[in-house]
Write a structure and sequence with these properties.
Chain B: This is Ribonuclease P protein subunit p29. Chain A is of the alpha+beta class. In chain A, 20% of the residues lie in helices and 36% in strands. Chain B is 41% helix and 16% strand. Classes of the chains: A alpha+beta, B alpha+beta. At the A-B interface, α4 and α5 of A face β1 of B.
């Protein structure tokens, strides 16, 4: 008998897109299908002398998020929880340590509960959803269910609420480790009340802080964003810089990676990296700050840029996994998105 | 001629006495008014034929034949004849019954509470039929499974626990009718729900045991199911 093939898989499909958006429009598009809703990593590559750097460095200083262990989904639908947290702030949550393409996962974002469940659970759950298109196979293995928690019809007295609550309570397999983040509309309320509430219910809650890392590169060649440059080369350079890979001036034996031309010599490049759990709202605020900055003036001032890259969660992908925004001195932003998935990409 | 006439008169005078004059006058007057019957008939017929002729294409013979037809006002058939031809009672055909919805149960109107005795009866029947205290502890449960597959489910409190269609999941009620493809149950809200057996999994409880029925295996009419030999099927995926 032959051994089953375990290494030679085809690479996942990827969809690379570049587009140009106006600066004042881009902020409206942040929590969207194109740019994603939750991010686990944010990287900013800022060349030149930036006066507001201290503000950016401290940006996520107090954005704590919580890890809740063994938390069943139906607790999210408790009338108390809905009225106190989901309806009175931005509540973002997602399951941890599950792979969207093989496991079941749940995401709460912008007031919507998305469940991605396997076939057997779907047939026992009792909530209608849509089959995920993974391949051309007729029998789908995964189903997506979406529930709008902020809907007026979704009140604890309504029939629909009772049905959803009953269905999720009966399903014991929908219990996961979660990461949660809550930002109240009312600034007088402390975001940590979420943790206090969950702790009171008897769940194990761990407070987490995003990790921050900063590096400054001196005297490096930085590519320019001209019409003739390929944006994916610049994205590659940004990625290399963020990972502390130095690009030699000329192709040499160890690395064929060089700085894309045309380029200029920059005195100082700030590389800021955050890792943690960021909602679209937080990413939007940071993007707003970055958009206001002026890129470093060069001889060819139009083509210099500042970059912010948002890295989405791989599991339960409904949006792009990487989104990189380049702001230039002009009104336009160059946006590069890459969507990687084993599923069929729409 | 004169002789003959005189003889006739003579003969008549022998048998008949002449009528008194006033009586003869009245008779003559009356006969004049009524006219002779045979003569009258012919006269009417002729008149009608004359009248109809220019209006139809039919010829005289045909018309006379038509006028000679008899239309009796009274049916002359005797009672005996009537009895010999027995009229069959008219029954509805199956198609007509189906069209009228005679096989269907009303959507509302059957009370869940009124079915409680039926359920009680069914539980008793099932307990006696399966004899669980003995059969459940035995090593070989094939006989038990056969009995479950062949049992009658009218009155059973069924619940859908798994289905390809999510809206059927959680439906719970007492079975009032079983057809080849469906279970028809009355829910606690006194509503009739028709649940297809295909692609659904049902459960029911008897005392401390819970049983699972795979609807896909039971796609048979209940009457036929009782006498059917079931094959064991290994896959239970919907």
């Amino acid at each position: 008998m032959y051994n089953p093939e375990v290494i030679n898989f085809p690479p996942p499909k990827s969809l690379k897109q570049t587009c140009t958006w106006k600066k004042d429009q881009i902020l409206n598009k942040v929590p969207s299908q194109d740019l994603g809703n939750h991010f686990h990593g944010i990287t900013a590559v800022l060349s030149g002398e930036i006066t507001e750097i201290a503000e950016i460095q401290d940006f996520f200083l107090d954005s704590t998020f919580y890890r809740v262990n063994k938390f069943p989904v139906h607790k999210l639908l408790d009338p108390d929880f809905l009225s106190a947290f989901v309806k009175k702030g931005h509540f973002d949550a997602r399951t941890l340590g599950t792979w969207g393409e093989v496991d079941q996962s749940i995401v709460v974002e912008s007031g919507k509960l998305h469940l991605s469940v396997c076939k057997d659970v779907y047939q026992e759950l009792g909530l209608s959803g849509q089959a995920e298109v993974i391949s051309s196979k007729k029998c789908p293995a995964k189903y997506d269910i979406s529930v709008n928690l902020l809907d007026d019809k979704f009140s604890p007295e309504s029939k629909y609420y009772k049905r959803v609550s009953w269905c999720l309570q009966n399903q014991t397999s929908l219990q996961f480790d979660w990461i949660m983040n809550w930002h109240p509309h009312d600034s007088d309320i402390c975001p940590s009340s979420l943790a206090a509430y969950l702790d009171l219910l008897g769940f194990q809650v761990v407070q987490c802080l995003p990790s921050f890392e900063e590096r400054i590169l001196n005297q490096v060649k930085v590519p320019l964003l001209c019409t003739e440059t390929d944006i994916s080369d610049v994205v590659e350079w940004v990625g290399a810089a963020a990972l502390n890979i130095t690009c030699p001036d000329q192709e040499d034996y160890t690395s064929s990676m060089t700085c894309p031309e045309p380029s200029y010599k920059s005195e100082k490049v700030h590389i800021l990296k955050w890792k943690g759990f960021f909602s679209a709202r937080q990413a939007k605020e940071l993007l707003g700050v970055i958009l206001k900055l002026r890129p470093e003036a060069t001889e060819n001032s139009v083509s210099s840029w500042l970059n912010l890259t948002l890295i989405g969660f791989d599991e339960f992908q409904i949006a792009s996994s990487i989104c990189s925004v380049f702001t230039t001195a002009s009104d336009n932003c160059q946006v590069f998105t890459n969507q990687t998935s084993r599923r069929k990409i729409k | 001629m004169a002789k003959k006439a005189s003889r006739k008169e003579l003969a008549e005078s022998i048998f008949y006495e002449p009528l008194p004059v006033d009586a003869r006058i009245t008779l003559e007057q009356q006969s004049h008014i009524l006219g002779s019957t045979t003569k009258n008939l012919n006269k009417d017929e002729n008149f009608l034929i004359e009248y109809m002729k220019p209006k139809t294409v039919a010829d005289t013979e045909e018309l006379t034949a038509q006028f000679k037809k008899n239309f009796p006002l009274k049916n002359n058939k005797t009672l005996k004849d009537n009895k010999s031809k027995r009229t069959k009672k008219k029954l509805l055909t199956s198609i007509e019954k189906r069209k009228l919805g005679l096989h269907k149960l009303p959507k509302t109107g059957i009370k869940y509470a009124s079915l409680a005795p039926l359920h009680q009866l069914w539980v008793e029947y099932m307990e006696n039929n399966l004899n669980l205290e003995i059969s459940a502890t035995g090593a070989n449960k094939d006989g038990l499974y056969q009995k479950i597959a062949k049992a009658d489910y009218h009155g059973c409190l069924l619940m859908v626990t798994r289905s390809k269609c999510p809206s059927y999941i959680g439906a719970k009620g007492i079975v009032v009718q079983e057809t080849k493809n469906t279970f028809q149950i009355i829910c606690e809200e006194d509503k009739l729900k028709i649940i297809p057996k295909r692609d659904s999994v049902f459960t029911f409880n008897i005392s401390r045991w819970t049983f699972t029925l795979f609807g896909n295996h039971m796609n048979i009419r209940p009457s036929e199911r009782a006498s059917r030999k079931f094959k064991s099927r290994p896959t239970i995926d919907l």
